[in-house]
Structures are given as structure tokens and as C-alpha cells.
From TrEMBL:
Name of the protein in its database record: Protein kinase domain-containing protein
Biological process (GO), any one: G protein-coupled receptor signaling pathway
Domain of life (superkingdom): Eukaryota
Pfam families: Pkinase
InterPro entries named in the record: Kinase-like_dom_sf, Prot_kinase_dom, Ser/Thr_kinase_AS
Gene Ontology MF annotations: ATP binding; G protein-coupled receptor binding; G protein-coupled receptor kinase activity
Annotated ranges, domain Protein kinase: 1-236
Taxonomic lineage of the native organism: Eukaryota, Metazoa, Spiralia, Lophotrochozoa, Platyhelminthes
ATP-binding in keyword set: yes
Keyword Iron tagged: no
Alphabetical UniProt keywords: ATP-binding, Kinase, Nucleotide-binding, Serine/threonine-protein kinase, Transferase
Length: 295
């Protein structure tokens, strides 16, 4: 079984999103890794473009956080390791994801995490920097805001590791370390990061705290931002990385198997709002074919 995403061609043209969609498809078509949501194939008809990818039934991390799941440190450790492997693979392909957040980390049925949504990803030339601002503000790294304010020339792969640190903190504490929102200015976001300290629970181990602190280092040159660094960190040093790469490690968190791991109300609202829902496509295309025959 597969998952399928479809995009209306006319809507993409009207929103001037065709180049973004084609860029995303080109990027994911070039990728194949255990901890990504991988592309199988694409196709199109007169109305829509279709992208067929891995089917993952465990729900995204955002869903489980919103439902109050208390993730153990072992679950956070495995999430860090799996995403470190994914980011190392993306870096080998010169790909900066730019939108790592709980919404884009999806569990499979046994509890492995997979990174998805390359809509704003960028392919960086050797030694090059990203200079456009993309992503979700509460998870953006300080250097992204500095670039927005023209106080930095650009940003690179360490920005994704900051976003991962924000995500892992939220996974552990069920809230973000900084009180940022999408409607805040870049200057206000940066000021909040620079002035507010990150608080940790007294029950948080020193090793987990050190790992998150290293990911949330404001200076990208000093930030924990490579697989080599993660492998040598006390929090993850004892992991069997060969077993991890083979997806043979046993996850500490396993999504419920006998319930929907998504919000059915949200899915229903999308069906109601959609002006040309997929389940009525056959009838629409039949009418279109009849009209063409008569003309």
C-alpha cells in the first residue's frame, strides 16, 4: 500500500507554485533512505498531478504531542539518532530541508521516524549559502533570522540541526523552548531567542540536556550539526549505529495499532473544503469527455 498526494494543476498555476512543486518532486525523486518518506512514482491527468510515496500509519509527531504522549528519553534518543542519519544523508546530497518540525516527522507502524515535506528544501552548491527565508518561524535558527535582517550573508546545514533541537525539546517537554509564533517579526524572534533561557525539567538527564543544548547553540559554527558529533555524544554514544541504519533497533515508542493516528475531523474538513474532491473525479472527467465528444 502507498500514500498519495495530489495537487490541482490550475491551482498551482494560479498560486505561481508550479516551479516549487516540480523542484520538490525532483528532489524527492533523487532520494532513497530508510528515515525519509520516499517517492515511488508520479503521474498526472488533465486536472491533477499525483505523487505516490511510502504509506506510514503511525501518525506525525505533532499529533502525538497534541494528544499528550509522554515520550521517554529513550524515544528521544532514537529520534535524534534517526534524524541525524537522515540529515547526514541529505547533506551528502547537498540538500537543506529548512522545515524540520513535529508536523514533518512521521512514525511508521513500529515507531521509526521518517522525515517528509521537501516543499521549501534547497540544494546548496559546494560552499554556498541559502539566503531566502523559508520554513516555520518557531523552528527557524538564529542565523536564518539574521539573514532576514541582512545581518548575515546566509545560512547552511546547521540550521536544520537547530530545528531538530527545537523539535526534540518539544517532543520531550510537550512545549517549545522559546515562545515564538508565525506572526512575529524576525527581529522579535531573534530577540526572544537571545534573551530567554531554555528551561529543563529537573527529571531531564544531564546527557539529554547536554544534547539539546548542543543542538540549540546559537552560533552555527559551534552547534552540534553532524552525524560524527552525534555518534560521539554521551547521550547517543552507546547506540548500535549499524542496527539503526538497518532499521533493526527496537523503538521505545510504538504508535497505537487499533486507532487512527490522525485527526479525522481535519481530514473531513479538507474533503468538504476541497472544490474538486478526488472521489468525484470520475464523474467530472466523464462529463468533460462527453462535452468534448459533442463538440
Amino acid at each position: 500500500m502507498f500514500a498519495m498526494k495530489y495537487m490541482n494543476k490550475l491551482a498551482c498555476i494560479e498560486k505561481d507554485a508550479v516551479s516549487n512543486v516540480l523542484r520538490e518532486v525532483r528532489i524527492i525523486a533523487s532520494l532513497d533512505f530508510p528515515y525519509l518518506v520516499n517517492l515511488w512514482f508520479t503521474f498526472q491527468d488533465v486536472e491533477d498531478m499525483f505523487v505516490v510515496v511510502d504509506l506510514l500509519l503511525g501518525g506525525d509527531l505533532r499529533f502525538h504531542i497534541q494528544h499528550g504522549v509522554r515520550f521517554s528519553e529513550e524515544a528521544v534518543r532514537l529520534a535524534l539518532a534517526q534524524m541525524a542519519l537522515a540529515l547526514d544523508y541529505l547533506r551528502s546530497r547537498r540538500i537543506l530541508h529548512r522545515d524540520i518540525k513535529p508536523d514533518n516527522l512521521i512514525f511508521d507502524e513500529v515507531g521509526n521516524l521518517h522525515l517528509t515535506d521537501f516543499n521549501v528544501a534547497a540544494v546548496l552548491p559546494e560552499g554556498g549559502l541559502a539566503s531566502s527565508i523559508a520554513g516555520t518561524k518557531p523552528y527557524m535558527a538564529p542565523e536564518v533570522f539574521l539573514t532576514s535582517l541582512r545581518q548575515a550573508e546566509g545560512y547552511s546545514f546547521p540550521a536544520d540541526w537547530w530545528s531538530l533541537g527545537m523539535t526534540l525539546y518539544e517532543m520531550h517537554r510537550l512545549k517549545r523552548p522559546y515562545d515564538l509564533s508565525g506572526d512575529m517579526s524576525s527581529a522579535d524572534c531573534l530577540s526572544s531567542i537571545q534573551s530567554a533561557g531554555v528551561r529543563y525539567s529537573t527529571s531531564t538527564s544531564s546527557q539529554l540536556r547536554a544534547a539539546v543544548q548542543a543542538l540549540l547553540e546559537p552560533d552555527p559554527n559551534q552547534r552540534l550539526s553532524s552525524l560524527t558529533q552525534v555518534k560521539s555524544h554521551p547521550f547517543t554514544r552507546q547506540l548500535d549505529w549499524d542496527r539503526l541504519l538497518a532499521k533493526a533497533a527496537q523503538p521505545a515508542f510504538r504508535p497505537p495499532r487499533h486507532q487512527l493516528n490522525c485527526d479525522p475531523t481535519f481530514e473531513l474538513e479538507e474533503m468538504i473544503i476541497e472544490s474538486k474532491p478526488l472521489h468525484k473525479k470520475h464523474k467530472r472527467l466523464s462529463k468533460l469527455g462527453s462535452s468534448s465528444d459533442r463538440s
